Amino acid sequence: MSAIDLVMAEHIRQLAAQGKRVDARGDFDFRPISIAAGIIDNAEGSAEVDMGGTQVLAGVKVDLGEPMSDTPDRGNLSVSAELLPMASPDYEAGPPSPTAIELARVVDRGIRAAECIDLESLFIEEGKVWSVWIDLYVLNYSGNLIDAAGLAAMAALNTCRVPKYEDGKAVREDRSKRLKIDNIVTSTTFGKINGRAFLDTSAEEEAAVDGRLTIQTDGELIRAMQKGLSGGFSVQEVSDLVDRSFEAHTNLKEYITKASK
Amino acid sequence: MGGSSLNKPELIIHGKRTDGREFGELRKFRIKAGIVKNADGSAYLEWGNNRIIAAVYGPREAMPKHSSDPAKAVIKCRYAMAPFSSLSEHGRSGPNRRATEISKVIKEVFENVVLTQEFPGSEIAIFIEILQGDGGTRAAGITAASVALAAAGIPMKDLPFAVSAGRIKDKMVLDLNMIEDNYSDSDMPLAVSPRNNEILLLQMDGGLTKDDLMKGINMVVESGKKITEAQRHALKEMYADSGENGV
Amino acid sequence: MEIVVPGEIVSDQPMRSQNTNVEDGKTYAVRIALKDSRKGTLVPLEGVWRPHVGDIVVGIVTGQRSSVYDIELNYFERSILVSGKYESHPLSPGELIEAKVKDVENRRTVILAYPKSLHGGTIVEAAPSKVPRIIGKEDTMVRQISEMTGTQIVVGKNGIIWIRGDERGVLKAKMAIKKIEDEAHIPGLTERIKQMLEKNSE
Hints:
The structure holds 3 protein chains of 3 kinds.
Chain A: H1 3-17, E1 33-37, E2 45-51, E3 54-65, E4 76-83, H2 98-113, E5 123-125, E6 128-140, H3 145-158, E7 161-162, E8 164-166, E9 169-171, E10 177-178, E11 186-193, E12 196-199, H4 203-206, E13 211-217, E14 222-228, H5 235-259
Helix pairs in contact in A: 2-3, 3-5
Chain B: E1 12-13, E2 16-17, E3 29-33, E4 41-47, E5 50-61, E6 74-81, H1 97-113, E7 122-132, H2 137-151, E8 161-168, E9 171-174, H3 178-183, E10 186-193, E11 198-208, H4 210-237, H5 241-246
Parallel strand pairs in B: 6-7
Antiparallel strand pairs in B: 1-2, 3-4, 4-5, 5-7, 8-9, 8-10, 10-11
Helix pairs in contact in B: 2-4
Chain C: E1 2-4, E2 9-11, E3 20-23, E4 26-29, E5 33-36, E6 41-44, E7 56-65, E8 68-72, E9 79-82, E10 96-105, E11 109-117, E12 122-125, H1 131-135, H2 140-149, E13 152-155, E14 160-164, H3 167-183, H4 189-200
Parallel strand pairs in C: 9-11
Antiparallel strand pairs in C: 1-5, 2-4, 3-4, 5-6, 7-8, 7-10, 8-9, 10-11, 12-14, 13-14
Helix pairs in contact in C: 2-3, 2-4, 3-4
C-alpha cells in the first residue's frame, strides 16, 4: 500500500467515526451497478459486471467430462478467479494468490450451497457428465471484488447454454438448450472501518477496512458466509448484517434477471 | 456438504448423534503444549479422531527480506493435511486451493490477537499439520495454534479458540465430525476471542435461517469456556513436570 | 507466584505493567508469565530477547562492512558495532565479544559499544526469558555458579552465555544453567542450584 493510500485511509477512518463515507453514500448502499450479459459468444455463458468501477468478467464453458469418483451421478462445477495484472498496480502475474483463491472459493460456495445449478441434471451417461467451468476475470479493481464477482458469476450462469450431446461429443454449434438454474444467490460484503460496518467498500475504503464479512443468501436462507481480514465482528453485528443482506437480495436478484433477458 | 446424496446415513438416531453425543456436546479433546523441541512454541491436539500438531517459530528474521513490514511483524501460516491423514485415497502433498484459503483465514485470526507492532520487521511463522483429519480440522488447528503461540512467549491479546456448528435436518449441532460434516445441511467453523466473544473467523455454507445461525453461534461461544480452560491448563502444565522433580 | 497466560485477567482494575493490556477497565496478561501479586509485575516465561539500552550481550563478529562490524546476537534484526571507536584491536570474523547495547535504532537495529574480546572458552544458548534468573539478584546466581565451578562466565541478555574453565567446571556450569532454565519458575532455585553443585563436586 502506498503512502498516499495510508493518508487517505486515515481520512476515511476519521469520516467513519462520524458515520460518513468518502463518497457520501449511505452505510448500506451499493455503488452503481451495471451488468452486460452474453457478451462473449464463444463462451456458453458470460456476463460483465461493473460495480462502482470494479469490473469483473465471468465466462462459463460447459465441457464434456468425467464425474468425480465420489459423485458419479453428478456433473461438475469449478470456479477460478484471476486477478489480472492489468486490474491494479498491486497485482502481479504468476500463480493464483491466496486472495484470488479465496475469491473463487467463496463464490463457488455460494453457488453450490444455494444449489443454483442442479448438478444431477448434468449427468449424461455412466462416466460422462457436463462440467461447468466458471472463470472470473478481474479487469479492474475498485473494491469489493467478492460481490462483483458473485454477481457476474450468477448472471453468466443465468445466460448459460448447454451444447448438444451427439455421438459422444459436444456439438457447440447447437446450444439451444439453456442451463437449468434452480436458485439465485446474491452476495453482500461489509467492510468494518473504525468499528462501523459499510456495504460495498471502494478501493480507497478498503485501505482502511479492518475486517470483512460476506453473507450470501437466496432470500430464504443464508447460504454461505466468509469472514476475512484480521478485524473481528461481535455476535450482534453478525446478526444485524444478516438482516441487511436479506434486504439487499431482492434488488441484486433483479439485476441478474434483467440482465439475462 | 460435498458428499453424495446417495446412501445418506441417518445422523440423528433417538435424539442422539452417531457417536452418542448430545447436540451441543463437544468431542473429547486433549491438548499438550511444548512437544516440538526445535520450535519456539508448539502444541499437540487430539480432538475426537483429529490429530494435529501446531508449531511456531519467531519472531525471527523475515524471509524473504522484502516480505517484511517495517511497522510490524508479519504472520505466516501454513495449514496442511498429511497425505495419509484421511480414510480415503492418498492425498496430494503440498498445499491445494482449500489449504491455501484455510491458511489465509487462520493467519487473519492471529493477526487480530498477536501484538505484531512489538516486533517490526520480523516474521512469526505458524505451522499446522493435520496428521489425521476427522472433520473440523481448521477449527482444531486454530485452537492448537493459539496454544503454540502462547507457548512461544508471543504477546497476544487473547487465546482464541475455534469450533464449528452446523445443521443436521432441523437441529443445530456443535462440533461436527467428518461424517456429520459430509452429510450435514450446513457447516460453520467459527473462531472466537473469549475475552469479548468477538468473532475472528466465520465461514459457512449450506443453508441456515437467521435463527439457526444465532443458535449455532451461541452454541460455539458457550462451548468456549471448556476449551479456553483446557488451553490455559495445557500451557501451565508445561511448567508442572519439572516442578515435581525439582523441589 | 502464579502462571498466567494471554487473555487471562490479572486485575479487575486498570494496571500499568509490562506484558499486560487494559481493556474495559480490566487488566489482561498478554504473555505467558509469572505473576508476582505483591509487586504487581508479570515476568515472561518464554519469548525472544527485546534489546534495551545498557543490556550486556555476548555475540560473534560475522563481518565488517565499511566502518561497521556485523555482530551475530541470535536476534532477528541487524546488530552492529561502529569500528575504530571502542575496540582495543581490530576485530576479526569469528571472534567472540561481550558488548553493551548503546542504542536501538527505529526499534530495530541494535547498536553496540564497549566490546571486550572473549578469548577461549565456549558458549551455550539459553532462553532469553530465563536470563534474569541465570544472572540472579545482583549477580548472585551467576557468581555462585562461577565460584563453585571455578569458571569465568559472561551471561548475555540475548541468551548467549560464554563460559571458560576446565572441562569439568564448564560441564557443571552448563548443567546448572540448564537446570535454571527448566526450573526458573519454581521458588527456592538458588538453594537447589547450590545443592546440585555441591553434590556434583563430591
